Amino acid sequence: MGKNAQTDKNRYADGNRRSTGRTGGSNRAYAAGTRRRQNAKPAQGSGKKRLFAFLLFQFFFALVTMPLFIFYGPFEEVKGTIVGASWNTLSHQYIARFFLSEKAIARILSGSYADDPTARGEEIERIDLSGKHDSTIEVYNIEGGDFKGKLMVVHDPTRVIVGYSSLFPESGETTSRITKNNGGVAGINAGGFLDRGWTGTGGIPMGFIIHDGKVIYDQYEGKDVKQETVAFTKEGMLIVGKHTIKQLMEYGVKEGVSFGPPLIVNGKPTIKKGDGGWGIAPRTAIGQRKTGEVLMLVIDGRSLDSLGATLREVQDILLEYGAVNAANLDGGSSTTMYYNGKVINRPSDKLGERLVPSAFVVLPADSRAVRG
User: For the chain, what are the domain ranges?
Assistant: First the structure.
C-alpha cells in the first residue's frame, strides 16, 4: 500500500513536470509569435522598397530600350518623325547621329520630303487678281489632334509686305517690333537666319530679302542661284518654290524672302507620302487662294497643350482652307503671329518672342509702309 501510494505521488509529480514543460513551451511559442507580429511593419516597408526598385528598373529599362525601338523598330512613320525633328533643328542633330549613320538618316527622310515641281522647271501659274478685294482680316482658331494654332485670312494681298529688322545685320528684332516699325496691323515671322557664333541674334538672313522691289540682302551676292522663295508680285500674287533673283524680278516681285519648302504648287500638294521629313515642331506657313486671299498660319508647339505639327499637317490645313500655292516659313522658336497690338499665339521660347530678321507685315487698308 505505501509503495503504491509513493508510486502514485511520483507519477503525479512527473505529470506536473510534463505539464509545466508544455506550458513553458507554449509561452516561448507565444513570445516568438509576438516577436513575429512585431516584425510585420518592417516587412511591409521592405515590400514598398521592392516595388520602388521594380518601378525604377522599368523606368530605366524603358529609357534604354525606347530609343532602340524608335530608331531600329518596324514603325517607319514614327522613326521618320523623330529623325526629322532631330535632324532639322540643327542643334539636336547629335540625337539622330548617335543611333544612325548619315546615310541611314538620308534614306529615312528622303521619301518624306516635299517634291518641288519648280525645281524641275514647272512655272507658277498666274491667278486672276482682277477682282475687288476688301479690307477684311479674319482670324480662326486651328485645332488638330496634338496641336493648336491660328489662321489669319487677309482679303487684300497687296497689303502684305516684307518688313525686316532695323538693326540688320547686327541683330534681328521681334515680329511684333518689325510689324510696328512698318506701321502694320498684323504680321508673322518670315525668313530664317544664320546665327553668328550660335548666339541666336537673328541678324544675318538666310537667302534673300526683297522689299519694295529692291534686293535688300542676298546671301549669294547676285550669283545666278536658285533659292527657296516666298514672295509677292506687285499685283499681290504669291510665288513659291525655287527661283533665281533674276527670275523673281521678271515675275515682278515686290516683296519676298527665302525659305521653304513649298507645300502646295499650282493647286497640288508637294508632300504625297510621309510627314514632310521635318518632324513635329512649331510651324509658320503662308498660302494664297485662287481668288487672292492670303492665308497666314501658325501652329504652337513644344508644350503639353500643343506639341507641334508636321509639314504634312500644315499642308493639309492650307489645302482645306483653299490654298493653291503655299510654302513653309521659319518655325520653331521663331513662330509668332501678331494682330491688333498683341501676339495672339504662344511662342515656344521661354523668353517669349525670338529675334528674327524678317516678317510678313499686313499694312492698314490704303496705307504705305513706314519704316521707323
Answer: 40-110, 117-362
3-state secondary structure at position 135: coil
- The pLDDT score that the predictor gives to residue 50 is 75
Residue whose cell numbers read 525659305: 259
Instruction: Report which secondary-structure segment, H or E, holds 315.
Output: helix 311-320
Compute the distance between CA of residue 219 and CA of residue 205 in angstroms, rounded to an integer. 8
C-alpha cell at position 209: 530679302
Task: Provide the whole-model pTM.
Answer: 0.76
Residues 6+ apart with CB under 8 A from 172: 165, 193, 201, 202, 203, 354, 355, 356, 357
What span, in angstroms and rounded, lies between the C-alpha atoms of 178 and 255? 15
Burial 28-56 (b: 16+ CB within 10 A, else e): eeeeeeeeeeeeeeeeeeeeeeeeeeeee
CB atoms near residue 25 (< 10 Å) = 10
Q: Return averaged pLDDT per consecutive 10 residues of the chain, 372 residues in all.
A: 49 48 49 50 66 73 60 61 64 66 68 89 93 93 96 98 95 97 98 76 94 97 94 98 96 97 98 90 97 98 95 98 98 97 95 95 76 38
Q: Is 160 exposed, middle or buried (0-12, 13-18, 19+ CB in 10 A)?
A: buried
